[in-house]
Model the fold of this input.
Amino acid sequence: MDTFSLEHIGAGFSDPTAASQRIFRTSLTVLSRPGTILEADSDATAPEGIGAAANAILLALLDQDVALYVSPTHVAVASAYYRFHTGCSITSNLEDADFVLLASTDRIPALSALKTGTEYAPELSATLVWEVAKLASGDGLTLTGPGIESSVRLTATPLDAAFLSARAETISLLPRGVDLFLTCDNRVCGLPRSTRIRG
Amino acid sequence: MNADVSRAPDSSDSGYNFAYLDERTKRMIRRAILKAVAIPGYQVPFGSREMPLPYGWGTGGIQVTASIIGRDDVLKVIDQGADDTVNAVNIRRFFTRTTGIATTERTVEATVIQTRHRIPETPLQDHQIIVYQVPIPEPLAKLEPREAETKMMHGLAEYGLMHVKLYEDIARYGHISTTYDYPVMVDGRYLMAPSPIPKFDNPKMHMNPALQLFGAGREKRIYAVPPYTKVESLAFDDHPFEVQRWEQHCALCGAKDSFLDEVITDNDGGRMFICSDTDYCGQRRENLAAVPANVAEAKSA
Amino acid sequence: MYVAVKGGERAIENSHLLVSEARRGDPSIAEISVAQIEQQLRLAVDRVMTEGSVYDRELAALAIKQAAGDTVEAIFLLRAYRATLPRFGYTEAIDTLKMQLRRRISATFKDLPGGQVLGPTYDYTQRLLDFSLAVASAECGEPQTNPPPPTSPEQEFADVMALLGAEGLIEAQPPSEGDPVPADLTRVPMTFPASRAERLQNLARGDEGYLLAMAYSTQRGYANNHPFAGEIRFGSVEVEIIPEELGFPIVIGELEITECQMVNQFAGSKTVPPQFTRGYGLAFGHSERKAMAMALVDRALRAEELGEAVVAPAQMQEFVLSHSDNLESSGFVQHLKLPHYVDFQSELALLRQMRASQSAQSESSI
Done:
């Protein structure tokens, strides 16, 4: 996996303490207010092909205690980068991953193939950082649930019918589940397991 | 590496990292907070650290605050609703020393409010986060102290035990005898301890625009109520949930809608009632003073 | 006009000054040094290191000085300091068989390889106040006959457990399958049932007085361990790490430790012949009371594993382990000093309301 020497690894946060806090707060805001889209920029140099928001979130949240699964699209360029900057371990098994990074071109995995926790420990579940092709407020899906005053509309391509039915299945697993950050370039939106989605 | 910045020279008081905790501990707590938000009302276990303040004195709230707070935040710390109680002063000093950030006593100016036992009277707004200090996070603990058992009950959403307890109260006293830390259901799924706030404050938790985070350091649990989330106090059809009411109003500001502390004023048991929320009371008095005396009298009459 | 009490900040600062003054005591008496505490209050230092989970005699001594001799407060200071330390790596497991012994006794065999070494112990001091200590003296007496020289690290004496094990008389203790890395309860909160590794970590950090009382209860019939002090060792062991770039162990220092291996009543089944069972205790420095109490409680907590009925407090994992830590218990008991005006007001209001409705009822029934 380590096909890159250190000098090929791009820069991380120049001020890790401040940047990690700021990006975490953005993550916290979007996860507690599903449908809200915020910018998550940083001064890190993301591995080629990975958007600024997805990169910042991973740099802010990973460390030695977690395992990351990297999309086949990015695995060659990104594994060494995240391992170097965060100390995380890299896993090639989806079901072992605490964090999963997927590209917009990846086939959407069955969410139940990820760690969903147990009914007694639902927190032992994966967080999916998913780069989507389009992310915008309005139109598209209707979201309701905790964090949403009445309802909110969200367009996220390719959250298609196949994804919605896969997610509907995992809803029956609640409180087990998977939590999502949808990212597009430097923007991010949270989709926790508690959100109800209508197509 | 990001993970090895625990001695980063950016603290305002020498020797310790910004907000005291090392970066790796903050990450662990941040991940726990995110899971707590995604599973409203569920208690997420976390690797609580020994803090330089004693367990039971707000270490859970402090660890949560230290993990979320940034240089642009404005922090308010209250204990029993007041900014000037010794414990609140001490925790505020801790964050001033370790972060150098701005603090305030005004609820409306704060971005992060750490509290023990109260929710401010001034309604919270959607850019705010309130962090509760929690002594016993398990709402069933007084009925079933074994965690192995309560974990099962939460997993199965089996909360009959709590209903039986409340019902027995009614049979014995004619009332539900729980007046603080009154159990709530969050988003219809998890039974949750709101921390020892008076039940007077329970309705404020329901559909609150602010994010509510709960930290229990000694018991090593973090939980959350996202903004705009249903929070229902347990009740029965024939015994609906009711909050405390006072016949008196605040002796200082005249408020009739706030939680009142009873103060003994002399050896003969003379007493008065004053707002427990010092900021709320102070603001009301300022506003009263700002209007001409005759109007103020007419208002408070 | 009522004015609420203010000035919390000044009160706190004044309280700090008063603490310093009280700690110093009479300034005409020489101030105690950290080195004096480290050297002359060594057993207090050992306890603070053990329960504080930091092996550093100087810091422990400093904590004792700062806490004016309050051991639990000193443990708190050391733990809070520990929580800020970065982790550089993990040592290899220490090998107590290679301990350089200063004391080693067994209550199960009159003599054994390596012999009984009494060493520095209060056990046979007659507890008469020694008034000669009231006056500072320059010299302390030399032992009349030289004690046996400390064993060299090359010497390895089989412990009692190995001797019994050779005959199959005591349960074997192979590493768990795959020798997994034990959970670290300072990082991941314990869940129940807890593994033995987690239980031992908890007990090692546990309050000595609490463990002593728990252990004592097992001897008085609340759980029946039937213990024998198989072996108690006090001495120093080497600590090794394997640096990644070297790939072989190097010694980075020495620890003084006390180890206790209790031999307890046998267990067996139709398929496994009866064998003695083990209880284990380990503490930093010279801490025999702690190590012995820990070994008794460890054995009691193995009740379920050994097919014994869990009937006594010392056998109840969640009860024992959730209440052993003196930072947690001291903090929570003492948090009752914090204001509870709001909760109390809520209770007052309810009580008045209930009394009023009761007296209204009894009046109306007249």
Summary: The first helix of chain A runs from residue 16 to 32. Residues 16-190 of chain A form a domain with the Rossmann fold fold (CATH 3.40.50.11310). The radius of gyration of chain A is 16 Å. Chain A touches chain B through 48 residues (CB under 8 Å).
